[in-house]
Amino acid sequence: MKKFIILCGVLFLFAAVTAFRIDAQAEFKFEKETYDFGKIPQGKPVSVEFKFTNVGDEPLIITNIESVCGCTVPKYTNTPVLTGKTGTITVTYNAATLAPFSKGLTIKSNAKTPVKVIYIKGEVVQTAAE
Fold it and tell me: 106 has which bridge partners?
């Protein structure tokens, strides 16, 4: 009977620890999720750095960032971002076409929300004649 009680206790502890670990995940907290460049000159690429903190319980790993076109190029922290630490995503936009723009970048990771979108926007204007 004593062995049975010990076995039940061990099984209960294992189940409790496993249940708590299911909720342990990484999670993004961005300083900003949209950046407005305003008016930018044609032909001059512009960049912005999105900073984020891992507010989850596990290391945050970005597996990929997809942009909607080749005019938007992301670079990101490739190493796992530990709990409470920060990482960056730098987005460069090639301002080639005269027009307003709004671009989304899709972040894929191991976070609680595995797919996250950040945005850049602005308007490309004609450069002043020199």
Answer: 66, 117
Are the C-beta atoms of residues 24 and 112 closer than 8 Å to each other? no
What's the mean pLDDT in 39-62?
96
Two tokens at 93?
Answer: 């936009």
Helix (H, G, I), strand (E, B) or coil at 12: helix
CA end-to-end distance (rounded Å), the chain: 93
pLDDT of residue 118: 98
Cβ-proximal residues to 16 (8 Å cutoff; 6+ apart), any chain: none
Kindly give, in sequence order, each residue whose CB lies less than 8 Å from that of residue 79, ignoring residues fewer than 6 positions away: none
- At 95, list the tokens: 């301002």
Please count the other Cβ atoms lying within 10 Å of the Cβ belonging to residue 23.
Answer: 9
Amino acid code (one letter) for 84 = G
Residue 2's pLDDT is what?
A: 79
